[in-house]
Write a structure and sequence with these properties.
By secondary structure, the protein is of the alpha+beta class. Helix content is about 25%, strand content about 30%. Helix 1 (about 1-15) crosses helix 8 (about 135-160) and helix 4 packs antiparallel against helix 5.
Length: about 650
């Protein structure tokens, strides 16, 4: 691939080719001390002993400040250890001593300039490199690749001024990070458990977790239970409710391909033994880097299976009613390219997808992009997160907390404890997902108090988009996320019971918001009554607003599933205005609901419309909040 060619050319230009240059005419022909030190530096660099090589080259320059090869070789070594600032400085000094002879060094010089964020200067340097008339085909491709990247960076800076944004990654400290590599961070929605992968002794990958202790993360320990084995476990994500763990296992006896997706469940004894997600999800190729949606209904992952758009594509499987996963769906050409897409992360808002790509235009290597899911489920054009989150190096493994601003990622920075460490930083405003609150509670039988396994749906009232559909656990407990700044209908369904409905408008706030809502369901029996909280009318009008259809369709579904059910639709108002007018308005509103149901095929003999005006208040009419509760539409069971 072109990537490999670029890397090879860069390494060659960094320092290996420096030893082949002819010495300056000002140096004596006999081997002297500086030549010996220079040769030692080259040998150390070729052996990967970069600090020793730096020392040798610095001694050369101390003895002979005109030793041009030492400048260029020193620049190449600093490039290898990713000290881009010093590399650029030494390339600049070396090139300046003979601009014509050293013109080809403008390529690595430009790359190191870009590594420090000097993209305009980098673009100028690579243009000088490409102006050389005798570049080979691969050399020209390498230069043109960098030229496109630097031009993109310059244009991005013009379109996205970030004068008030400071990228200050914070190392999570010794309770999380060690001399071993740590990566793939994930977090439960309550912010109390942090799970990540650690490569122990640079060989065995295992899962560790840390718990929040007042103001800091506690010491990380191995996940309890049977999920960790002598084999490698990696690229994991814990579900937001802390009950599932999806991850990658490679070269296992029960595997379908080189790497497969597995799942483990939290039990009273710890995490269960890993279960292969099977041949419907996994292929005979590489399947890895799984990510669960907040409602655990969608499983995103990267795969190199045949039939994609490029090397590694992003796919999604959907959880079916019987508990099995659907066949994988390719996320399509809006997301996938001829290159590699990897490390998908769907935020708690269930609408914003972050992922890495080297096929979309960026700064070089793999950049992180985001895309938002539209009302019809289509993905928007991916947006690059920009510098300095994206750089000329490879970025990925991003996790963003429900607050939509705190991000976690793995990086090997100057303050790391020895290898990849996990850092946190604050996202810029213009690349954030939607801030998310969450609701938790229990669904139970109103009479007996017993928990009821049920389906919970969250729908955007404005565009009728189904945002989440959550199945409670066996005792009726649930957790669901709510992006802020939107109005939602909240519906709970269980066979044999009247459905429950409510609505929320989640206002943006400066802090995390948690709602607790326990939901009593009424069995379908005579005189059972529910209030339809997502039926909307304009003031003093009885025409149904479009936002009402989601809930009305649930009522159609209830009547269809219970073909002998006979109900009465009751309209109510507050006490503002004339009593007779209110009575007529409530009757017309009840009739509007009945007309909608009959228009959907429900037998009119099973429906009665009744208006009560303001005669049956359920709250005081002396406040707007009370009057709002009194303006309602009820459904009463007459017979079943």
């Amino acid at each position: 691939m072109m990537k490999k060619s670029i890397i090879c050319i860069l390494i060659l230009a960094s320092f290996l080719s420096c030893s082949a240059q002819k010495k300056s005419k000002s140096r004596p022909a006999a081997v002297n001390k500086t030549d010996q030190l220079y040769t030692e530096g080259i040998n150390q660099a070729q052996a990967g002993n970069y600090l020793a090589a730096i020392s040798s080259f610095e001694q050369v320059l101390y003895l002979d400040s005109n030793y041009n090869d030492a400048y260029l070789s020193l620049a190449g070594v600093y490039n290898q250890i990713k000290n881009y600032a010093l590399a650029a400085q030494y390339y600049e000094k070396g090139i300046a001593r003979d601009t014509a002879k050293n013109v080809l060094y403008n390529l690595p010089y430009s790359i190191n300039l870009a590594g420090t964020g000097q993209f305009q200067k980098a673009l100028k340097a690579v243009n000088l490199y490409l102006a050389h008339p005798r570049l080979g085909q691969n050399s020209r491709k390498a230069g043109e690749y960098r030229q496109r990247s630097f031009a993109f960076a310059v244009d991005y800076e013009k379109k996205h001024p970030q004068k008030d944004y400071a990228f200050v990654p914070r190392n999570l400290g010794p309770n999380i990070n060690t001399a071993d590599p740590e990566y793939f961070p994930s977090l439960t929605i309550d912010g109390k458990e942090f799970v990540f992968t650690r490569q122990v002794n640079n060989y065995n990958e295992d899962f560790f977790s840390s718990h929040w202790e007042d103001t800091a993360w506690g010491p990380a320990t191995l996940l309890p239970g049977d999920v960790n084995t002598p084999q490698n476990e990696g690229a994991q994500m814990i579900s937001l409710d802390g009950q599932w763990l999806v991850f990658t296992g490679c070269s296992r006896k029960d595997g379908w391909g080189s790497c497969d997706l597995y799942i483990s469940y939290l039990t009273p004894q710890g995490w269960s033994e890993a279960i292969n997600l099977g041949g419907r999800v996994n292929s005979d190729q590489w399947d890895s880097q799984p990510c669960l949606s907040p409602d655990k209904r969608d499983l995103y992952f990267a795969s190199r299976r045949f039939g994609g758009y490029g090397g590694s594509d992003l796919y999604v499987c959907h959880l079916l009613p019987g508990g099995k996963w659907s066949d994988p769906e390719n996320l399509g050409p809006e997301i996938n390219t001829k290159g590699d897409e990897s490390t998908p992360f769907i935020h708690a808002d269930n609408q914003t997808l972050y992922f890495s790509s080297n096929g979309l235009q960026g700064y070089g290597e793999d950049d992180i992009f985001y895309s938002r899911k539209g009302p019809g489920g289509a993905w928007s054009i991916p947006v690059n997160l920009g510098y300095p989150i994206n750089t000329i190096d490879k970025e990925g493994s991003l996790f963003i907390a429900p607050d939509a601003k705190t991000a976690y990622y793995a990086s090997n920075r100057s303050d790391s404890y020895g290898a990849l460490d996990i850092y946190s930083f604050e996202l810029r405003d213009n690349i954030r997902p939607y801030k998310t609150s969450w609701v938790k509670g229990k669904v139970y039988d109103k009479k007996t108090g017993k928990g009821l396994p049920s389906a919970i749906e969250l729908v955007d009232i404005d565009n009728k988009q189904l945002l989440s559909k959550v199945q409670t656990d066996e005792t009726g407990n649930y957790l669901i996320t709510l992006p802020e700044g939107k109005a939602y209908s909240f519906n709970v369904n269980r066979k044999g019971y009247l459905f429950f409905s409510d609505n929320f408008f989640i206002q943006s706030s400066g802090r995390d918001t948690t709602f607790e809502k326990n939901i009593p369901l009424q069995s379908i029996e005579k005189d059972a009554t529910i209030t339809l909280k997502n039926i909307f009318f304009d003031f003093n009008q009885f025409d149904l607003k479009p936002a009402s259809t989601t809930e009305l369709d649930k009522l159609v579904e209830l009547m269809t599933e219970n073909p002998t059910l006979v109900t009465q639709v009751n309209g109510h108002t507050d006490n503002v205005g004339n009593a007779n007018d209110n009575l007529k308005l409530s009757e017309n509103r009840a009739k509007a609901v009945v007309n909608y149901l009959t228009g959907k095929g429900i037998d009119p003999h099973r429906l009665i419309a009744k208006g009560y005006g303001a005669t049956q208040p359920i709250a005081g009419n002396d406040t707007e909040a009370g009057r709002a509760q009194n303006r309602r539409t009820d459904i009463k069971v007459l017979s079943q």
